[in-house]
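Revision sheet: structure tokens.
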Amino acid sequence: MDNFLAKTIEQRVEQHANNMPSKAAIICNGNTLTYSQLWSFVLQESQNLESNNGLRSGMLNFFRAKQDASFIIEYLATHLIGAVAVPLEKDFPAERLNSLKSKYGSTVLQQDSDDIENIADILFTTGSTGQQKGVMESYSAILADADNLINAQGFSSDMVFIICGPLNHIGSLSKIWPVLYLGGTLIIADGMKDIDALFRLFDYPSNHIATFMVPASIRMVLQFGKERIARVADKIEFIETGGAAISQSDMDELCSLLPKTRLYNTYASTETGIVCTYDYNHNPCIAGCTGRPMKNSSVSISTDGTIICKGKTLMSGYFNDESLTKNILHDNAVFTSDLGEIDSQGFLHIKGRNNDVINIGGYKVSPTEIENVANSFPSITESICIPYHSDIFGDTIKLLYVSTSGTNIMKRDIARYLSANLESYKQPRLFEQVESIKHTYNGKLDRKFYRQN
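Predicted:
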């Protein structure tokens, strides 16, 4: 970061409003907010939250993360008065929202004046158990995350960043931080529902366009828009992915379509912050490789093969759950459930999640490895491996797969393909072609759903 010692993103937005008032800050639905307008709306909203909602420093502000400028205005305004932003899914049910407000509306977190270790956000996430957890993020962690991305991925004031993921999840929310810190421009899209509308955003008159997409969204782009994305290749500075594993075949195809674009695979989570990133288009293209730790982070591997993260980007703990916090956050480190390896160059390689590993006859099998191979089979657009008990085979692996345009794929052809690329104990015994595969709200394969069903 530059020499301006900002303690919050809000201080930077105020500075940009004074120094470059007419610069475009947010573009959404064809409307543009300049930095001067954005800051004016933030000031108005902060007054509204205080006078009409009774919000004060340390109080929790529960609000839906709409895919438009109003979310960013309320998010920044909440911080401005020292309250804690608690963004929820844009379609979060009204009854549950009222229940949260009723239960925690009087909660006040201890906030010291102008302390960057104060809690800025509580981001709700669900782990492998399905239990919802509120991850507390400090202002210090937010700035460290922004600093990591600025230094490792080359964010600049010229950046035009397209947000197409949910704004209450760290994958997209974390991109707001460096863009607004540097005075770049955010373009907010309403997800991937209208892919034609998304592609039109890349026509924006800039040669410094970037975006973040989960692997499922990248696969959608490759399926429906190869030619369109290739036509604007020279305008796209970088595309980042994360949140789930991207297959080798999708990485190879994206590299071919965008030969000059930086393509990043990033290791991050709500609990750890933004930790590692790797440009697989200008380095060896290796699935699962997320590169070296960024400026404010470090990683190591535990004796059971899981990833340990340290640094300035870590969460402050889980809201209202001291016991769970102590299990995950101790010794100044977050102990994750992600399996990983660090190679001789210091690059972190993700091997899946400890809770996702399938135990077959004493062998531990990573479903991600099988899915990567299956997804490279012609006509398969997506797949998921699940543990399955069969009366014939006993405990085994079942592969669910989706084909291009509903094309019928013979099970024996898939089995032969997998047997040529995987060890015998990793090969599924059962196959089922399905119309679609269920994902979580933020685009990950919903493994919990299939474990329960």
